[in-house]
Amino acid sequence: MALRKFRSVTLGAAALAAALVLPHAGFARPAAKPAPAPAPAIQPAANAPKLIVAISIDQFSADLFAQYRSHFTGGLARLASGAVFPAGFQSHAATETCPGHSTILTGVHPARTGIIANTWIDQSVARGKKQVYCAEDETKAAADPKDYVASVGHLLVPTLGERVKALWPTSRNVAVSGKDRAALMMGGHVIDSVYWWKGAGFTSLDGRTLTPAAVNENKALADVLAQGAPELPLPDWCAGKARAIPLGGSFSVGTGRFALAPGDKNAFRASPRIDRATIDLATELVDENKLGKAATPDVLSVSLSATDYVGHGFGTEGSEMCIQLQQLDLALGDFFIALDQRGIDYAVVLTADHGGFDMPERLGEQALPASHRVSKSLLPEALSAAVAAKTGLDAKDLVLSDGASGDLWLRRDLAPADKARVLEALKAELLANPEVAAAFTADEIAASPAPTGSPETWPLIARAKASFYAPRSGDLVLMLKRGVVPIPAPGPGYVATHGSPWDYDRRVPILFWRKGMTGFEQPSPVETVDIAPTLAALIGLPVAAGAFDGRCLDLDAGTGDTCGAKP
Length: 567
Ligand SMILES: [Zn+2]
What we know:
Layout: H1 13-21, E1 51-57, H2 62-68, H3 75-79, E2 83-89, H4 97-104, H5 110-113, E3 119-121, E4 131-133, H6 160-167, E5 173-177, H7 180-187, E6 193-198, E7 201-203, H8 212-227, E8 245-246, E9 252-253, H9 265-269, H10 272-288, E10 298-304, H11 306-314, H12 319-341, E11 346-351, H13 360-363, E12 372-373, H14 380-391, E13 399-400, E14 406-410, H15 416-431, E15 436-441, H16 442-447, H17 460-466, E16 476-480, E17 484-485, H18 503-506, E18 507-514, E19 520-521, E20 526-527, H19 531-539
Parallel strand pairs: 1-10, 1-11, 2-19, 2-20, 5-6, 5-10, 12-17
Antiparallel strand pairs: 2-18, 3-4, 6-7, 8-9, 11-18, 13-14, 14-16, 15-16
Helix pairs in contact: 4-7, 8-10, 10-12, 11-12, 14-15
The structure holds zinc ion (ZN).
Zinc ion binds next to helix 11.
């Protein structure tokens, strides 16, 4: 149930140790035995876990994992005793929530998931700003015109949970998150139960009735919201971080403690409490769907959004992120204990949809004076005016985008000759700007070779190609220089962000854990598209050659190979 478990104490070390040493085969597979005859249907691997728990922590960068790792005592400490890949990569340039979540359980880059960004411009849609949200059905009218109809229709490929269900129809595919796009991109199109936070409670796809698990959770949350809640404790090891950073007027961040005023839904959402609520609902969905109890494996996706809201609202280096990560660690610890208590044989993977970067005002004080906020000269109105002046064309909607970086679209009614002139003028305008690192046209990206090799050495155009899908991508992709934050002016709730092709936004931890396994650390870069092939091999799910961009990671620390028996 919701939110009653907030506390500052750490998990009992003895209980955790006991949980970790219980005899179990771990990830190792038994040696193959000669099969007497072909089985009538494909069976799961002999030692397959009964439940895959795929967790995404929104904006949990490899930098945050490294910074806080030694302080974790709960769920993150448990996972850090498993197979640890501290240099995982969301390899693509468009390091946003929707593209990032789309890679985790599909095993392919956004170029193949089709999820090129959180929003893109589609000039054929009949609406003012021509923006399409990655997880909406823009052909359907929402009840509220400011709203949208949530949908996974833009995702072009199946998720692991869908593949599992297609082969083993009794398997269940369940997803829950603080964000609709996260739950939908991890869950996919064929999903037994899917929930996300909206307004003041959890909701689901149009036409679905809330099940008792969600109804009960929402009731518990309504009580918490009505009553409010006190500040959360500041861990001793974060005392030095609690320092106010003024951001103009009376607005400052850096010392927040998440006191919850009664009825403050937005403060609830941007706090550790939303993660605790998501985990509580996940636990209830395990029971409601009897996950981990059938002969074939189930998939439960859990995306925890608070780290992202905290990062955007307060940056990554104040008291707020410190409290957030401690509370998250404790909530995950309780989640795993709850799964243990149910006797479920589960395997966990934990990663993030993208990394993150602190706000320039604090970075400037902390040895990174080159970081600054982007100027307004790169916003679409300014670029339209500049290019119109060079070409003599009408400036209105000449260049479209949803910010000061990423994809840019040209007005679609331009004659081919004019389009070529505008593109040339726009590229020259961008490259003359000292804040710009690179600008690639769609043709240049399409013609560039597919990325190969280790993702940290990919050139910028390869990063762009990994999140380029011609039917949706812009006419040009703009990349800011390292350290240039694409928020021209900070405001409450939005002081720092991600989305760049730089490694602070691309690098995320990837952790695998299963009871009884022997842990190991592999510091060489791997990718989030490696997760789906790794899990598919672990459960014995056959997948056609070429279906994944990633590779199977062998989770056996010794001579065994969890990829070796891949059908
Ligand atoms: Zn974000």
